[in-house]
Amino acid sequence: MAIIVNLDVMMAKRKMSLNELSARVGITLSNLSILKTGKAKAVRLETLNAICKALDCQPGDILEYSPDEENPGLGDSTS
Question: Would you state the pLDDT for residue 2?
Fold first, then answer.
């Protein structure tokens, strides 16, 4: 996966549990766990906004792009 989810890092910095973040954001613990482990295929902007608000951070603090060497050219408009 080319997008790395650093949700656990921000949660640790804010000393916030998964249960607390789930309650603040308004999504199920199961869905938040899927996002945290990087298994989510997509995230709604509304959810990302709520997470950033709860953790007082920017989307870039949670999500990081890393080139996917298994899929060179994926997302490359010149391919």
Answer: 84
